[in-house]
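ligand=calcium ion
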Amino acid sequence: MTLRRLLAVPVLLALAGAAPPDTPAGPKSDLRPADGSKADPATGRPTRVVHGPSGITMVLVPAGGFRMGQGKAEHRRVIRKAFYLGETEVTNAQFRRFAEAAKYRTDAERGVELDGHTKGSFATAPPAAATAPREWSEAASWRRPFPDLGDPALVEDHPVVHVSWNDATAFAGHFGLRLPTEAEWEYAARAGAKTAYPWGDDPAAGAGHANLADKSHGKKFPWANVLFPFDDGAAVLSRVGAYKANAWGLKDMIGNVEEWVQDTYAKYPADGADERAAEGGVGRVIRGRSWLDGPGMNRPAVQQAARRDFIGFRVAKSIDP
Ligand SMILES: [Ca+2]
């Protein structure tokens, strides 16, 4: 069948008044309004929803424009369409639901080669290792995030970590979701803020906003020397959604774990480009930084390329036209 004919089929169905057999009342939505939801005036959509197949709570991010990146890389970007974004990072419980249903084993579990390593991921070295904050561990996987810290019990609502970009993409595809683009991610993390952090320009004012490399982290890991000057109560990972939401209702965009986005690591496009993902670059981009990072890195504008590490993700869903 030619492309023209493929495109023509839905038009013919519409003209004949026929709907596809599995959607007698039009497109069946897998989103239902969540607690505290309102009707968004611009789109008419609920502002907070639960995605049925995955159980993930998502927040409506409005269309708009913003200044993306930092320093010489700063440029204007446009988010043309509102979209839904996970309120928090994907949890171990949510990832387990996928792994069991799809019989999926992650790159770290299967031993997919990465820079000469096979099984495992970069995991935390014991606190006594004063020289290396992270070392490759063949035992590390999403099921065992801290093999070098005595293997504490896996917490169901901690963000999943040690998942590759391929693993994150497989999770999203299984549930009919996708990763956010890099532009969507920074736009949502800023939530309208033009400052270095979503809460302003002062790192000290971030108490209660995120799980960062803080005083409690510094007590546990002597190699951590650039810290936020407060105690956020979490030396390592924290439960998702435990800190204040940003102005658009999103949590943990900064801190807790780094997050995969769709884009390859490439130069930003010319001024005025839209939210589409960059292709043709090297590796994939992570955003948001983590419980391991101090004030210099835990900012919405910081971009970095990486592969298997303490990296998790959150999912997005487009709003159909
Ligand atoms: Ca912390």
